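Annotators were shown the component list below and the corresponding predicted structure, then asked to write short factual statements about the assembly.
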Amino acid sequence: MNRSICKVSAILCFILMLTTSGFAADTIKVGLIDCYSGPPSTYTNDVRDAFKLAVDAINAKGGVLGKKIEFQTRDTKFKVDLGIAAAKELIMKENVNLLMGTINSAEALAISDICKAEKIPLLVTFSKSEAITGAKGHRYVFSFTENTAMAGKAAAVGLSKKPYVKYWIAGDDYEYGHAIGNAVWENLQKLNPKVELLGQTWWKVGEPDFTPYISSILAAKPDAVIVATGGASCVPFLKAAKATGFNEKVPFFMHTATELSTLQPLGLDAPEGVIGTSNYFFYYPQTPENKQFADEFQKAYGRPPKVGALYGYITAMFLKKAYEKAGAVDTEKFVDALEGLSVDSPIGPLTMRAFDHQLMLPMYMGVTKKDPGYDFLVASDIVTIPGEAVMPSIEDIQKARGK
Amino acid sequence: MAEGIALQTILQQLLVGLSRTTILFIVASGMSLVLGVLRIPNLAHGSFYMIGAFLAYSVSAAIGSTMGFWTAVLVAPIGVALLSFAIERGLFRHLYDREHLMLLLFTFSFTLVFSDLVKLIWGSDYRSMPVPEVFQGSILVMGLTLPLYNAFLLAVGPIVAIGLWLLTQKTKIGKIARAAAVDREMVDAIGINVQMIYSVVFVIGCFLAGLGGALVAPTQNITQGMDHGIIMETFLIVIVGGLGNIWGALTGALVFGLSHAVGIMVFPQFAIVIPYLAVVVILMFRPRGLLKSIW
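Structure shown to annotators:
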């Protein structure tokens, strides 16, 4: 009795699997795997929405190679195992042509492994681990976002021009915090051998109150502080910095401090004078292309685009151009076409480096400042550090890959 | 690292640590109260704290400026108290006789429901509530700079502590609650409506969680996940202090808040573990907590 139930249900499952693909026939199928619940979704929703904006525009003009682009999303709740399950499901059951995502670096690396084995391209849209296109890079993985190595190099270039000597490093006690802290420090030492490290402070991820950390850092009297914190911690850190007068006493650098996702929630309560780096502002560069993109996004979703929107949008642009160049919906041809490809993005021409599949994104270093035009702080005195200057060298990548 | 740290710096750290202690104490005392009288290890206590913070954000955003802050600190805990009242009457009261594991699972399921509810209502973006204008900037106390808001928190702590003391020691309801904590059946037998007492204590406990959330709101990110962060610390504080003992909650919060602040200064690289180490050491020597446990 039990056995026959098993058999029947197995057959039913099999039939269901055959018949329930959510995709229409003869389309380019993209699977978008990311965390759409919890705090990270403030970043990932922008990736998805901008990608949709670009895809809708492409489909309205007849698609790519006469095929429409279709995509489905899977929410992985920031969990690696759910990401792996979603990747397998999308590849095996939905027969996707390629995968996109994620914001969780461990998840991106795990999915990257699957994609390497299954020979499915993975377009990484937000994970900042330099291992994705560095030590763990392979033929089928591409990154459309900056990583800790690039942010560190950009910050070091900017900071080396300032007169600070005695530094303090403080940050989130996990992969991202240490990676970015080390990257800034190693590059800074190369560019300015005079710098010295007074000490370090590491707090747990999601630390609610930074006041005691800041007061103890200030007591050590460094010339400048490198704050290696990201995501959810940026907002409360800046808040505590303002309450303690940190920004007025000691200058500090924090990657993503100038980003809209950090500054908008704080409104006019954000501290001024904080040095930050970011890949994108909706108000900078002030080019017609960027204005057009920002306006379209604003019109579609009722909010200005954040950095994730740029990543999602350019991923769609590269995807379209690569398939056109490949001339067929063929994975190997697509990968070949994407290597070294350039597109005209909202922030100007961008190139996918052929060697490591890392997009050469410029970094904008700016300082937080009040602006009468906005009810939140914006980045001012923006210096553009071009993509070539922030990319890790090919030798470094080769070394990381052990070749 | 330890040499060269001036006395002034240590005092500064202690002051900052004390303001964190205030929040921890307010939240932990609420949990301790519920734990002591109702015997419910309420994991959803952290959710009430999170909802308090979100409510405070909404109220403060709607009204604005300093007035918005005071209204928020008043309205948010009351909102949380009303919510907890509905839940206590609707669900919890049917479960008092169940074993602790059941209650633990039940309250845990509530943390999941609440976190989705918060996401539904407030979305997943970070929220930030401004520090009210009167408390912006910092003051000089004996040559130490202390953010004004932290100074305000330092003043709130004793007020809440005295209020709780008066409530439990001087009011009739407090006396009955203490009696019910010791022997529920006896209180029932002499004709007192224990159900009503339970309801009141639960609501007061959750009110305190909401108050903690509202007070902490201007100093940090208001976001999902706040509930998990606080519940861990609160549980440890309640255990260290002695289960169900309000003064234990104060002692535990002091241990946690101060060891954290001083730890940051002395071992900045390992600051995370210091409060937990303190907890381990205390429990090794006093496994039932520092003060007398009601259990």
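Statements collected:
1. Residues 149-278+362-390 of chain A form a domain with the Rossmann fold fold (CATH 3.40.50.2300).
2. Residues 59 and 216 of chain A are 56 Å apart (CA to CA).
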